[in-house]
């Protein structure tokens, strides 16, 4: 495969689709999101089966347990994917809204209007549900997107992307508004990062190495994070029982996700009471 030619073609198609997405009505975008959610639920068993192939390969390659957990698609996680798309559909559509609207003494009226960015490249690792999450947010905001998931989730991502494209087609939106890079070659990432003619912004979601590479190589603006800094703070007026429950959930609901609590801060005046309650909570939990 000629990687450069392949990625360039994705860029051209995404750019053309972005023009149509920018003009799409809120009702059409929301209908597409609901159609995609319906398609995902319809194909739940198929998604779980395909995901099983990725899991089997990942286990054989020695992928660590935390990453295996991120990779797995269960019935509940697929339901959550679909629900997430419906929630995005329910959000207010800010495209076309104006802010900072002022009238000059000359009579000229000036304001800032929210408009789509165009084509958003999103690079992520491990979790196939990000395919649906990222596509949903891009579609709601009137953008086209090119997605590059982790190689360990390639079959899962392809299956989800197929559901997305079917949903788009059923509502009259361009299928190429959401495209998945369907090669695991690392060269594809480099070509995407150099494709400033068609990609307006890159969003990397993953480990430090990925973020550093994207920051160094991208020829377009990058929206990024870096190291995880997930803190929970219990202040001196907090309801201790509720605070302990929140902190425990923040750490133990899923250990492997990027928003898992990493640091618990407690107001000095509450420290003794909270830590004693925390110890008791841990003693009663599995």
Essential attributes:
286 residues; alpha/beta; Aldehyde Dehydrogenase, Chain A, domain 1; 2 domains; 13% strand
Question: Would you write up a description of this structure?
Answer:
By secondary structure, the protein is of the alpha/beta class. The chain folds into two domains: 3-96 and 113-217, Aldehyde Dehydrogenase, Chain A, domain 1; 231-284, no CATH class. 52% of the residues lie in helices and 13% in strands. It is built from eleven helices and eight strands. The strands form three sheets. It has a four-stranded parallel sheet with strand order 5-4-3-6, sandwiched between helices. Strands 1-2 form a two-stranded antiparallel sheet. The relative contact order is 0.14. The mean pLDDT is 94.
Structural class: alpha/beta
Number of helices in the DSSP assignment? 11
* N-to-C CA distance: 51 Å
Rounded radius of gyration (Å): 22 Å
Q: Kindly state the mean pLDDT as a whole number? A: 94
Shape verdict: globular
- The CATH homologous superfamily of the largest domain is called Aldehyde Dehydrogenase, Chain A, domain 1
Number-wise, the strands total: 8
Q: Order of strands side by side in the largest beta sheet?
A: 5-4-3-6
Any guess at the CATH architecture of the largest domain? 3-Layer(aba) Sandwich
């Amino acid at each position: 495969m000629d990687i450069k030619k392949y990625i360039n073609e994705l860029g051209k198609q995404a750019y053309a689709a972005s023009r149509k997405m920018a003009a799409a009505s809120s009702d059409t975008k929301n209908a597409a999101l609901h159609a995609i959610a319906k398609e995902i639920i319809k194909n739940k068993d198929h998604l779980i089966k395909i995901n099983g192939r990725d899991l089997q390969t990942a286990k054989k390659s020695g992928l660590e347990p935390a990453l295996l957990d991120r990779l797995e698609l269960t019935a509940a996680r697929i339901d959550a994917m679909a629900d997430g798309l419906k929630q995005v559909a329910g959000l207010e559509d800010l495209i076309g809204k104006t802010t900072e609207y002022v009238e000059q003494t000359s009579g000229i009226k000036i304001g800032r209007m929210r408009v789509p960015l165009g084509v958003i490249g999103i690079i992520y690792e491990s979790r196939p549900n990000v395919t649906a999450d990222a596509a949903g947010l891009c579609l709601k905001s009137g953008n086209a997107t090119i997605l590059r998931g982790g190689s360990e989730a390639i079959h899962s991502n392809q299956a989800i992307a197929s559901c997305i494209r079917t949903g788009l087609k059923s509502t009259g939106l361009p299928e190429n508004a959401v495209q998945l890079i369907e090669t695991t070659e690392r060269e594809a990432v480099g070509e995407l990062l150099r494709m400033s003619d068609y990609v307006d912004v890159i969003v990397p979601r993953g480990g430090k190495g990925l973020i550093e590479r994207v920051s160094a190589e991208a020829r377009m603006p990058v929206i990024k994070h870096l190291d995880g800094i997930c803190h929970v703070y219990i202040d001196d007026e907090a309801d201790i029982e509720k605070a302990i429950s929140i902190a425990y959930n923040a750490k133990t609901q899923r250990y492997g996700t990027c928003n898992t609590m990493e640091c618990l801060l407690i107001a000095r005046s509450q420290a003794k009471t909270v830590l004693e309650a925390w110890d008791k909570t841990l003693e009663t939990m599995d």
